[in-house]
Specification:
Elements lengths: L2 E3 L10 E4 L8 E4 L2 E4 L4 H4 L1 H16 L9 E2 L39 H4 L7 H34 L12
Antiparallel strand pairs: 1-2, 1-5, 2-3, 3-4
Helix pairs in contact: 2-4
């Protein structure tokens, strides 16, 4: 589940989260327990951007009050469908999925379950699809880069950066 959790509702604090799973447009979120629908419009609805904007607004409202702050920010990128923001839709045009030693071999029991379903080596179409998915993942992560950069800049501009711990998962 992709969620921006600004802390627990039970503790009487704010909450903002995606209802459902891995949506980039046309999503419904729970904002303080109230359903809010977004549409298929990048400027107002691209989910990574929505999370960035809501997180920035909330962080800005609580900084400087002399109390510790916890903000956990989660987005669906780069998980499928890994829909990129329009400005990144053409990035990484020549990028190929990493060809590690076990990349194109039939699965065995010691590999991830998705690779154990492969019964034969991939054909040219599957190679291209793998590269296509890889490029979409990279493109969708560009918006995550934007989110992290803006949070970092806000914390730096408010002299909170040196008091902040970042955890990447």
């Amino acid at each position: 589940m992709a969620v921006t959790s600004r802390t627990s509702r039970r503790a009487g604090r704010a909450g903002f989260g995606l209802k459902g799973n891995s949506r980039f447009y046309n999503e419904t979120v729970s904002d303080q327990g109230v359903a809010k629908q977004f549409r298929d419009d990048y400027a107002t609805s691209y989910f990574t951007g929505v999370v960035k904007n809501e997180s920035m607004k909330w962080i800005g409202s609580v900084l400087g009050k002399g109390k510790p702050v916890f903000c956990s920010i989660h987005v669906p990128a780069p998980h499928r469908p890994a829909t990129p923001a329009p400005q990144y839709a053409d990035d990484f045009a020549d990028e190929k999925a990493p060809r590690t030693p076990n990349w194109n071999g039939p699965g065995t029991q010691d590999k991830h379950v998705s690779s154990t379903m492969m019964k034969a080596k991939m054909d040219a179409d599957t190679f291209e699809y793998s590269d296509h998915v890889w490029r979409r993942r990279l493109r969708s992560l560009k918006s995550v880069d934007d989110l992290v950069a803006e949070v970092f800049a806000l914390l730096k501009s408010t002299a909170q950066l040196e008091r902040t711990v970042f955890v990447y998962r």
